[in-house]
Amino acid sequence: DAMVIQNPRYQVTQFGKPVTLSCSQTLNHNVMYWYQQKSSQAPKLLFHYYDKDFNNEADTPDNFQSRRPNTSFCFLDIRSPGLGDAAMYLCATSRLRRAGPSTDTQYFGPGTRLTVL
Amino acid sequence: GENVEQHPSTLSVQEGDSAVIKCTYSDSASNYFPWYKQELGKRPQLIIDIRSNVGEKKDQRIAVTLNKTAKHFSLHITETQPEDSAVYFCAASRANFGNEKLTFGTGTRLTIIP
């Protein structure tokens, strides 16, 4: 069942200390997403890659960056974590095409729970 | 952009009874509507989805109905069991032609009372 893998599952960092979360997938999907989810709330999309094209949400803080070196891997970098960045970070993938019917289904990884001290 | 409203925010149901969760959407161009179940501390998992070319879809105890005219869709769970207790999220998107983002509802915490 390990189609979307996230590492680490739990991450503790200090206020202001950069942290990188990783996501990998074995589905060969061309779209990868990063969501932030706080307790009792819906997942909030931070950004996504459509193939190599990066798409940032308008309200995503500059503190959050992403890299996708190849189809299988995607990273979330938090440059200077604040207390408000403590959350579950979810990676998801889907297979979509620029023309014609799309799969649309998003498959989520298990998440990384980030604690900021 | 799309806006999805979900009701109720919490729902308690006696085991064996049915549960219904409703969502409305604002973008008439939305045509893909998935439902996710999220247990505490776990990932959201797709339980059922529907596209705008059908009005109803069923998978064992779970069904989803879609009313395109009214722009609302609902999740129906029959014969509820304790393992159905979770948070359920509806979502909507404009599938096809590269529009790949989901807009989520705010979630419904479903509790099944044994």
Strand tally of chain B: 11
What is the terminal separation of chain A in angstroms?
33 Å
Radius of gyration of chain A: 14 Å
* Oligomeric nature of the chains: heterodimer
Set out the fold topology.
The complex is a heterodimer of chains A (117) and B (114).
Chain A: E1 4-7, E2 10-13, E3 19-25, E4 31-37, E5 44-50, E6 53-56, E7 64-67, E8 73-78, E9 87-94, E10 107-108, E11 112-116
Parallel strand pairs in A: 2-11
Antiparallel strand pairs in A: 1-3, 3-8, 4-5, 4-9, 5-6, 7-8, 9-10, 9-11
Chain B: E1 4-7, E2 10-14, E3 19-25, E4 32-38, E5 45-51, E6 56-59, E7 62-67, E8 72-77, E9 86-92, E10 103-104, E11 108-113
Parallel strand pairs in B: 2-11
Antiparallel strand pairs in B: 1-3, 3-8, 4-5, 4-9, 6-7, 7-8, 9-10, 9-11
Q: Can you tell me about this structure?
A:
The complex is a heterodimer of chains A (about 120) and B (about 110). By secondary structure, chain A is an all-beta fold. Chain A has strands spanning about 5, 10-15, 20-25, 30-35, 45-50, 55, 65, 75-80, 85-95, 105-110, 110-115. Chain A is globular and about 45 Å long. The mean pLDDT of chain A is about 90. With about 110 residues, chain B is mainly beta. Chain B has no helices and eleven strands.
Task: Summarize this structure as a short list of keywords or feature phrases.
heterodimer; A: 117 residues; mainly beta; seven-stranded mixed beta sheet; B: mainly beta; five-stranded antiparallel beta sheet; 54% strand; globular
Task: Briefly summarize what is shown.
The complex is a heterodimer of chains A (117) and B (114). Chain A has no helices and eleven strands.
